[in-house]
Design goal:
By secondary structure, this protein is an all-alpha fold. The chain is built from 22 helices and no strands. The protein binds heme C (HEC) (9 copies).
């Protein structure tokens, strides 16, 4: 026992010294508040026990930077081109990663090489394309769940926008720099950035984190279908599928755009501006395109008008205090049918679309008729009530007279 204590007393100072992170303490002494050593406590690596030495190499027990630089395996600061390999030393090492977190993928570098960023980095030695730390930041890296992280969904548009919405920075590539601006105005951008709806796509949900196209989609054009499965399913079966493939029109963007997706309206269909159909179809193009566009619009307008009338009738029945629960539920079914009718636009086929519109119309007719019935009942009851009160009053007067006449 005494021996053990002796050994412990002998070794504790050694252990403390060896465990001391001189990199951190010395760097904290001279770096500004936003220097690596100060912000590093927010870094996911720091939180998982990965220190300066694990990335940069060197020896944390040394007290002099010059000595650190002489340690074999000191990596120093990687250049822009070296960063991916610097990170991949761990992140592409399946055995290493399995010991830390078996759930974490090890394909980031492989995928990155297939992206425009990776291709240009390696092929052209392009110093302006994104490497790992352009997106992940450095020394305060987080994962997609940490609010401070540059890859958190709410921050991603600005992480990408830092380069992509900077016209000077992007000038030499001749590509647009309006993606962030357009995205901010879109249904998706508003849902993500204003409503804080994490189900709405950020840039990486469409473009993928690392690769050229997200998994499950052959190309970027199919990406909308990963969330809007019903519309994509209808589209694939529609006459547009082959025609669009042949002409290289992307399947959803052609009508909805990619970054500036706005809330669709019925005005997008029909034979008058701002209908999207008339961009390609005309009376004499030899297809049923325009005819269908007109018929679709007619169907939708019919249900919308029917719904309005039903709603007015129902409101009157409600203000008259009638039992309207059934009709209120039926009006919700009309709304459902209207949603389905609009979704069925993507079949571009009258036979698929019309049953939903016909159902919607039939439901509005029922609501209208039943509400009218309730209103009639109200007047009938009121008349009945009037007669009944008159009768009771007469009875009361009769009774009163009778009582007065009694001795
Ligand atoms: C006694 C203080 C001290 C210690 C200990 C120390 N550094 Fe440094 N380090 C410095 C100074 C000073 C610089 C130079 C800063 C400059 O030139 O702007 C520096 C520079 C660096 C750089 C920039 C690249 C380079 O080579 O100049 C890296 C990376 C770095 N240190 C990492 C480490 C790591 C990792 C450790 C621990 C193994 C460590 N430092 C230990 C003081 C220290
Ligand atoms: C996850 C890996 C990783 C860890 C851990 C890490 N660094 Fe770095 N560090 C980098 C990368 C990558 C760069 C290159 C940054 C760049 O090119 O802008 C860098 C750059 C630096 C630089 C020079 C550039 C600068 O920002 O001033 C210093 C100094 C530095 N690190 C110090 C440290 C210290 C001190 C620690 C521990 C507190 C640390 N690093 C932990 C990856 C790491
Ligand atoms: C020394 C090995 C090592 C190096 C080098 C390294 N990492 Fe890591 N990284 C890890 C480990 C270990 C984790 C934590 C895994 C866990 O436990 O969840 C991690 C976590 C991460 C995470 C968070 C993953 C998640 O979803 O939680 C990101 C992002 C990340 N690293 C990016 C980078 C980038 C970018 C670089 C290069 C600048 C880099 N790493 C360099 C080992 C390393
Ligand atoms: C164009 C921006 C971008 C580049 C370049 C990039 N990443 Fe990522 N990375 C992301 C985004 C966005 C996520 C998703 C964030 C999340 O869910 O944690 C991510 C996720 C990760 C993760 C978490 C596990 C995973 O695969 O989802 C790791 C680890 C990672 N990146 C490492 C790297 C490494 C290593 C490199 C360089 C070879 C790199 N990243 C390059 C944007 C980028
Ligand atoms: C460090 C700056 C930088 C960051 C950050 C960055 N990119 Fe890029 N990106 C570029 C450059 C430069 C190109 C090359 C342009 C080219 O070749 O057309 C490019 C190319 C692209 C392309 C291909 C454009 C084409 O030519 O069709 C896409 C898509 C793209 N980036 C998406 C993103 C997304 C999404 C993010 C964020 C997750 C992001 N980028 C972050 C600089 C950046
Ligand atoms: C809803 C899906 C979606 C979202 C969200 C999205 N993109 Fe795109 N993006 C696309 C599609 C689709 C294309 C067209 C690609 C093609 O035709 O090959 C595209 C094209 C691009 C291009 C190539 C140049 C251009 O404008 O055509 C860049 C750069 C780009 N996006 C960056 C971004 C950035 C940055 C964000 C976030 C602010 C973002 N994207 C958000 C789907 C999306
Ligand atoms: C990551 C999932 C996701 C992806 C990918 C996606 N969307 Fe969306 N989209 C949503 C969500 C969530 C909403 C609802 C936003 C809201 O709250 O208004 C939405 C809304 C819409 C709307 C408005 C619907 C309405 O009734 O108001 C249209 C149109 C749309 N998306 C088209 C597209 C197109 C086109 C693409 C591909 C370029 C696409 N979406 C990619 C999730 C996605
Ligand atoms: C970007 C161009 C484009 C837009 C926009 C467009 N179409 Fe088409 N449409 C086509 C092409 C191309 C064909 C195939 C014509 C052929 O078979 O020769 C087609 C075929 C059709 C067909 C099948 C016609 C037939 O004779 O079998 C219908 C129906 C149709 N479109 C309806 C619509 C409706 C409704 C809209 C508006 C919501 C619309 N289209 C918008 C390009 C477009
Ligand atoms: C030929 C033009 C055209 C194409 C291609 C197209 N849409 Fe639409 N989309 C429309 C029109 C028109 C409406 C408006 C319906 C209404 O409100 O009356 C619409 C409405 C929508 C809506 C809102 C209504 C609903 O279904 O909930 C979503 C979401 C949507 N589209 C997604 C997509 C997706 C995803 C794709 C690709 C698979 C796509 N659209 C392809 C024309 C098109």
């Amino acid at each position: 026992m005494k021996k053990l204590i002796f050994i412990l007393i002998l070794f504790v100072p050694v252990l403390v010294l060896a465990g001391q992170n001189n990199c951190l303490t010395c760097h904290q002494d001279f770096e500004d508040d936003d220097g690596p050593s100060h912000i590093f406590s927010r870094d996911v690596h720091s939180q998982k026990g990965i220190g300066c030495v694990d990335c940069h190499g060197g020896d944390a027990s040394l007290e002099d930077m010059d000595e650190v630089r002489e340690v074999r395996g000191y990596r120093g600061v990687p250049s822009h081109r070296e960063v991916p390999d610097f990170c991949a030393r761990c992140h592409s090492d399946a055995t290493y990663m399995r010991n830390h977190n078996p759930a974490l993928a090890t394909d980031q570098l492989d995928k990155y090489k297939t992206s425009v960023h990776g291709e240009r980095l390696y092929r052209n030695n392009d110093k302006k394309v994104a490497n790992c730390i352009s997106c992940h930041s450095v020394h305060e890296m987080g994962n997609g769940k940490m609010p401070h992280s540059s890859t958190h969904p709410f921050n991603i548009p600005y992480t990408c926008g830092k380069c992509h919405s900077n016209p000077e920075y992007m000038a030499e590539y001749g590509i647009a720099t309006d993606q962030l601006h357009n995205f901010e105005q879109s249904v998706h951008g508003k849902a993500l950035l204003e409503k804080r709806d994490a189900g709405a796509p950020a840039c990486n949900d469409c473009h993928s984190n690392h690769g050229a196209a997200p998994p499950g989609t052959e190309n970027l054009a199919a990406v909308c279908g990963t969330c809007h499965a019903l519309e994509a399913e209808l589209f694939v079966k529609s006459p547009h599928n082959d025609a669009f493939n042949e002409k290289n029109f992307p399947m959803c963007e052609t009508c909805h755009s990619n970054h500036l997706v706005v809330k669709p309206s019925d005005a997008m269909i029909g034979d008058k501006p701002p209908s999207v159909c008339i961009r390609c179809h005309s009376d004499n193009d030899g297809t049923k395109g325009l005819e269908t566009a007109k018929a679709f619009r007619g169907m939708i307008d019919m249900v919308v008008a029917g719904r309005e009338e039903a709603h007015i009738a129902l409101r009157e029945a409600i203000t008259k205090g009638m039992m309207t629960t059934d009709e209120e539920l039926r009006l919700k079914e009309v709304d459902q049918a209207l949603i389905q009718t609009r979704t069925q636009v993507h079949s571009f086929n009258m036979e698929d679309m019309s049953p939903h519109a016909v159902l919607g119309k039939a439901l509005t007719d029922t609501v209208k008729a039943n509400s009218a019935g309730l209103i009639d009942e109200y007047y009938f009851r009121r008349k009945g009530l009037g007669l009944a009160s008159l009768f009771i009053t007469l009875m009361a007067i009769g009774l009163y007279i009778k009582i007065r006449r009694l001795p």
